[in-house]
Amino acid sequence: MSKKIDIEKYFTPDLSKARKRTNKTIEEVKFDLKETYKKIGLNKTYLIHTYGCQGNEADSETMGGILELMGFMPAITEEESDVILINTCAIRENAENRIWGELGRLKALKRQNPDLILGLAGCMAQEENVVDRVLKKYQHVDLVFGTHNIHKLPDYIQTAMFSKERVIEVFSNEGEIVENLPKTRHHKFKAWVNIMFGCDEFCTYCIVPYTRGKERSRSKEEIIEEVKELVINGYKEVTLLGQNVNAYGKDKKEDSYTFGDLLRDLDETGIERIRFTTSHPHDLDRKTMEAIRDSKHVMPFFHLPVQSGSNQVLKKMNRHYTKESYLKVLNDLKEIVPGISVTTDIIVGFPGETEEDFMETLDLVEKADFEGAFTFVFSKREGTPAASFTDSTPEDEKKQRLYRLNEKINEGYLKGSKRFLNETVKVLVDGVSKNDDQVLAGYSEHQKLVNFRGDKSLIGQIVNVKITIAKTWFLMGELVD
Ligand code: SAH
Ligand code: SF4
Ligand code: F3S
After folding, report:
1. How far is residue 264's CA from residue 274's CA, in Å, rounded to a whole number?
2. 208 and 228: one domain?
3. What is the rounded average pLDDT for all residues in the chain?
4. Same domain, 266 and 198
C-alpha cells in the first residue's frame, strides 16, 4: 500500500541554495516535546541504522532520544520495529550505493508490514537528486527529513502514522541551534559532544558544506554544562565534534573566545579525557596547541587531514595551505606538544592529479611521520565544483595509487605502535576483545588500540598496561599497578 503524495506540501532540497551563506544571526532555541506527543510511541519500537561520520552517530543518538521521549522503545530486530530510520551519508558514491541497496532490501519488509514507518534522514536527504529518486522510485519510504530539522521528528512521525501521507521535508539552509535535545547515548563512559555545526570551507570535492549548512558554534555555556553533566553521570571521555573544530567561535564575531579557550575550560570540568575531531590545518592556531600542552585531560592525539601533498592539487581543492605550510603547522604542533600522535586523511586521484603530484603526497607522508590515515579515491559529488573538473586518470591507476599510498601509511602505523614497546600506557578499558573474551580492549591516550588480559570489572576504568608486543593495528601488554 503506497501512501498519498501531496506534492504541494513537499519541502525538497536545493544544492545551489544550500551553497549560500548569509550574515543572519543564528538564534538558539530549546527543544520541548508537546504533552500530546508523549504517548504516541507507547508499546511501539524503533531502530536507527547509522552511516557516515561521528556527526551522524551523534544525530542518531538525538533521534533515538526524541523517539524514546515519545514512548518508543528500541527494537532488537527489523521485523518487530514500528519505525526504522536510515541516517545516511553522502560523502562518497560507494557510501550512497550501500544505502540505496539497503532501501531496496527494506521494500520486502514494508510489504510484510505496511504499518512500518520507514524514514530516510541525514546528508543524502539534503541532495535534490536523492529526494527526486525517492519520490519516484522508492514509494515505500514514508518519511524524508534532513540534517536541519531533526528536532521536528515528532511532527513527522505523528503525520506519517495518523494521516497516512508521505512526509518529505528538507530545508536547504540551517535554522536555529536547538538545545535541550534528548539523547540515547550508546556508550556508558564515552560521549560525543557537538561543539559546532556546518562547514564554510567549501573544499571543491566535498558535499558537506551543502548538506550541513553554514558554520555555527554552540555557546560555550551549553557545551561546558553538557560535559559537567556527563562527568556527574560517570562519563570518562568526551569527543568534541565539528567539521572544523579549529574554527570554533569564529562565527561569533563579537567574541574572541575560540577553540583553545574552550579546551582550557573543558579541562577544568573533571572529565578524564578530551578528544576532538576534525581539524582544518589552516585554522589550527598556537592558542590551540598551547592549550593542549597545558591541559591535563586533552589527549596527545591529533587528526589533521592533509588531503594531498601537491601544491597544485591543494589549490584546486581550495584547501588554503601548501605542502610547506602544512609541514610547518605540523612541526609547530610536534614542538609544542612533544610525543603527540598525528593521523590524517588523504584523497588520491583528484581530477588532474599527475604521477608527480602523487609523488609529492608520498613525500609529504614520509616527512610528516603520520601514525595512521584514512585514504580515499576521489569520488565525484554532483553539485560540487570538482564534479566538473577534467579528470583523465584511469580508475585503475587511481586504485594503484591508493595501494601504494596505503603501503606507506601502514609503515607509519607500525612505527607509531613500536614507539610504545616496553612503555607503560594508560588505557580506558572499552570491553572484551572481539576475538577472545578473556582479553580486554581499550584505547591509550595516543589513541592506540591495546589488548591485555584482565577482569571484566575493569571495563570503564583507566588502567596502566605495559606494552610487550607492538603490531601494525594494535598493541598487546600486561596489566601493571
Ligand atoms: N571535515 C572533515 C572531514 C570531512 S569528510 C575534514 O575536513 O577533515 C572526511 C574525509 O572524507 C575528508 O577528509 C576527505 O579526505 C574525504 N572526502 C571528502 N569528500 C570526498 C570525495 N568527494 N571523494 C573522496 N574522499 C572525500
Ligand atoms: Fe568537507 Fe573541507 Fe569542510 Fe572538511 S573542511 S567538511 S573536507 S569542505
Ligand atoms: Fe557523511 Fe554527512 Fe558526515 S556526508 S561524513 S554523514 S557530514
Report:
1. 11
2. yes
3. 95
4. yes
Does the pLDDT of residue 334 top 90, yes or no? yes
End-to-end alpha carbon distance in the chain:
63
Condensed to tens digits (0 to 9), the pLDDT of residues 78-104 reads 999 999 999 999 999 999 999 999 999
| Exposure on the CB side of residue 64, measured as CA atoms within 13 A | 18
- Ligand number nearest CA of 243 is 1
Residues 286, 205, single domain; the answer is yes
Q: Give the nearest ligand 1 atom to 345 CA.
A: 15
Ligand 1 atom closest to the Cα of residue 243 is 1
Q: Which residue's CA is the closest to the ligand 3 atom numbered 3?
A: 53
CA angle, 73 then 74 then 77, to 5°: 130
Whether residue 224 contacts residue 230, with contact meaning beta carbons closer than 8 Å, is answered with no
Q: What is the DSSP string of 293-322?
A: HH-SSB-SEEE---B-S-HHHHHHHT-S--
Under DSSP, is residue 11 helix (H, G, I), strand (E, B) or coil?
strand
Separation in Å, CA 227 to CA 53, 397, 447: 21, 47, 20
Q: Measure 201 CA to ligand 2 centroid, in angstroms.
A: 6
Is 108 within a domain?
yes
Give the pTM: 0.96
Looking at residue 7, its pLDDT comes to 56
In angstroms, what is the span from residue 319 Cα to ligand 2's centroid? Answer: 9
What are the tens digits of pLDDT across the range 398-447?
999 999 999 999 999 999 999 999 999 999 999 999 888 899 999 999 99
Q: How many domains does the chain have?
A: 3
Could you tell me the pLDDT band of residue 481, with boundaries at 50, 70 and 90? confident
Question: Does 243 contact ligand 2 (Cβ within 6 A)?
Answer: yes
Distance from Cα 154 to the centre of ligand 1, integer Å: 32
User: 458 is in which domain, residue-wise?
Assistant: 424-480
**Ligand 1 pocket, CB under 6 A:** 91-92, 205-206, 208, 243-244, 278, 280, 305, 307, 345, 347, 376, 378-379, 381
- For 121, other C-beta atoms within 10 Å of its C-beta total 27
Does one domain contain both 294 and 202? yes
